[in-house]
Amino acid sequence: MTFLEKSPFPWLTKGALAILISGCGINDLEFGNLDIPDYEPTLAVPLGVSRYTMRELVGDLQDNALTIEEGEDLFMTIVYMDTSYNDEREAFLYFPPINKSDIVFPFVSSSPAGETEVIEFEKVITFSFDAFFGEQVDSIFFNSGNLALEINSRFRSDVILEFGFPSMFETADNSSVSISDTLSFGTTVPVTSIKRMPLGGKKFLFRRREEANDFDVIIKGKVVVKPGQSVDFSDFFRFSIDFQEATYSHVHGYFDRKEGLLQDRTIELKFFETFGDYGLDFKDPKIILKVDNSFGFPSGLLMNNLSASNNDSTSVALTGTITESLQFVNYPKLDSIGKTSHSEFVINAQNSNIRELFGITPVKFNLPLTVISNPDVFEKDYLNFMTDSSRFRTITVVELPFEVRMQEFTTNLKFGTDEIDLKNLQEAALRFYTENEMPFEGRLAVNFADENDTILFTVPEELVLTAPQVDASGRTLESKKLLSEIELGTEGTEALKSADHLNVAIIINTFNAADEEYVKLYADYKLDINISVLGRLKIKTQ
Amino acid sequence: MRRWLTTLSIIICCFATVKGQNGLGLYTLGDAVPQNSRLNPANEIKGKLVLGLPVISEMGLHVNNRFGYNQAFTKLENDSVKLDVDKVVSHLKKRNALLFETSIPLLYVGIKPEKSSFGYSFFVNERINVRGQYTKNLIKAAWEGTNSLVGQPLDIGKSAFSASYFREYGIGVNTSLMNDDLKIGARVKLIQGIYNVKTLWGMDARVDIEPETYSYGFLFKRAGLNAAGVSEDPSVGYLLSNPNKGAAIDLGATWTHQNLFSLSASITDLGYVRWKEFSQNFILSDTSFAFQGVNFTADGDIESTIDSLKNAFTPKETANPYSAMLSAKSIVSGSLLLGPVDRVTVTMMNQLLVGKIKTAFAVSYVKQLTPGIVASGSVVKLPQQWPRPGLALSMTGGPVQYYIASDNLIGFANVGNMNTLDFKMGVNLIIGSGKAKNETDLPPAHRSKPKFSSNDEGVDYPTDPRLKKPTVIRKKDIYTIITKKKQPKTWKNWFKKKKEDN
Lengths: 542, 502
Hints:
The complex is a heterodimer. Chain A is mainly β. Chain A is built from seven helices and 34 strands. In chain A, the strands form six sheets. In chain A, strands 5, 6, 7, 8, 9, 10, 11, 12, 13, 14 and 24 form an eleven-stranded antiparallel sheet that branches. By secondary structure, chain B is mainly beta. Chain B has nine helices and 30 strands. In chain B, β29 and β30 form a beta hairpin. Chain B starts with a helix and ends with a helix. At the A-B interface, α2, β1, β2 and β34 of A face α1, β4, β17, β22 and β24 of B.
């Protein structure tokens, strides 16, 4: 207990006070002439994210003509559909206007007499018009229009005329058709009359000859010579027949062999603009031509002018067996007038080089289809027909099942750097974190370029997507995650700061593409891409 | 952020060079120093009249920080100093506290009427309280950039800040019960708030950065800031009186048991201020969202993405009144009474900081060196600090009392490394204390021997009712045989008896 009785407090207190009073070193604390270091934070910043399923990815291709079809197993097929019509009937049958006239001399005479005398006569006149391009019209079924008969009589007597048309019948009952007219003489000649007969509901039969089509008009006349009147041998009358504004419901005949364009179509495949440039290979692309034909004649299609071209103006023509022969188009037979016959033609990898065409990632597909009527194999007496609504409807279906092979498939993108303030950036690293269910791998190649596209810095290529393995059914087993970083370093960062734009190339290879293996793309495949940057800044403080 | 850090460092280091307060060491001097009634209102007023002079009756402050000057600045060869934030960061722990307290007394009057067991006090103080907690991650993120947060979530909710400047007008009363074995006291205070800035209590805010994608996950719940009085230039009228009113209470008790030990407990600054005048609230909407950059899938662009991010961080500003609790403290201490002038005291002080209790400990030895001098030596363990030696000294000569105390004595040996400071000194006028002043500083058993009076049998009976009446065994002539007088129960007598027995 000594320490309690002899407390150390007095000397402890004295010592402590000595410490307190002695200077304390406050003068060592200086704040003048303060050097504040530059602010150099390293920021981790997410630049952006894209999360796509294959369905969304393809659905974003911005092409109204494009539909995506999914099978029960969610296998995807791009379907591009385009429809064209050809109703240029005159290309197969030129039906000229029928406007015929003639002078009829009955060769009758009569001297003035005290009683009225009636002189009868009968004439058969054959009209003919040329068969253009070997056309031989057999019959025309009129819809509308008029048959105008204009008579100009030089008889100084009344003339009663009946024009019979042995080739023309009422369609409904096959009864014959004729026009009667009486030209009453007054005081002067000529005496003129115009008669019109509606053509609707009538049919006209022609006699087919080698180079022409003929029809007859039978004129039965009576000259009524009244007392004091006379008829001379040289008296005549002139008449003309005009099928005015005639339209037909259908025409029969032989329309001969003609070539026409079933369609002259260029379809734009905009989605390939998004897809990239080269290296995309579809396993089984198809173009299906669905032709609905209501022309009543045999015809064949020629597909030897089809081609595809891409943004680089590279063009590839379609070749193969399908282009080497006529493809016959079904047509309605005589007992099916007004009906439509359907034909389908499939251009695929087995009968053409269509893979090559899609291999250039075409943005345009030229689809001129030549149609040939009555190809040589048909006899000329074969009866064709067409109606006023005959036409070809061609539905072009581009079918691209998403079973593809991409080998070094490259998409080039360009990004401006104008709006990004990079002056404080010292160093940067781009980071990609991807989670990929799609069976392809991707590399990224980036370079920085100035206004003249001179490359200032090339970033080493970096793998940013890895391809998951594919099972026996063609489906990927599990998603693959990949974290990759592209270090720009000081040199790259300086180049980036002075760059006008970035050229970015995405290079894609499908699973085992080098082994000619194709992969199927299913709608539910997901691809997540996160892009971020790690940047060291330097902000001056003094 | 850089300027903020610089300013903060300079402020902290400047304060660390001034004199300081809060005073567990001083507390152990008990009612020898009137200012201790702030920490325990049960402390007796030692004198008929105690006057605390404006300003000089209490000068000091308390600063507790994680780092000191030398950890923040590096001297360069050209006589300049460099702010070295990297060094600061390296000295930080996971969580760090910043506490600053100072008080400027304007008035203190203590009255102890004669023959009354009650003492009364009136006081007016200007007080500044700053307390904050910040995580190392927060400072790292601000200085080194968000890369430092990758894979390490930033829990902003674990950081908080509160700074208040207010004036307290108070009255205190204390008394003793149970023959002076129990002392109790209370102080009621009217608070006049002047300035306040604080983060919202219960704030939950987090930032997560995914290591792979660097995408940010934000969570804000009750995130925001209250402020009052800081946006306007204060008028004299505002400084003297304004509608920012509040109230608080301090309670305390000390119990002494058979002169062997005593226990004290107190709770102070239990109250609040309702901040109405010039109040501002900046509150972020409760939300949680992920920022992943531009959403390429939805054809987003940088501009709209940044705009949406800005919107999420734009606080809603209102001028609604708000309440803020004062920084309440509780102190529990126990003393082993070794003799009339000696005691060993263990003290524990708790205060709330960001929902967590921060505890300080002190082990002190108190000794009355002379009738006018009481001193204590302590080992003080403050929050986030190593235990350090402290000293408190009270010297009274006539009516003048001078006291000085520090809880970090060795810090003065190297001020550059000092990161905590608790220093307090002051001068009081104590009138009417006399000898009794020093007597009553001590527990009853250690005071002067009580006077005795003789009864008819000639036996001296103690006038002090605390002492037992002697038992008469028998009478012999002029003697009266009584039982042997027991020595007072003290640890010193106990040791003495043991020695004699041996």
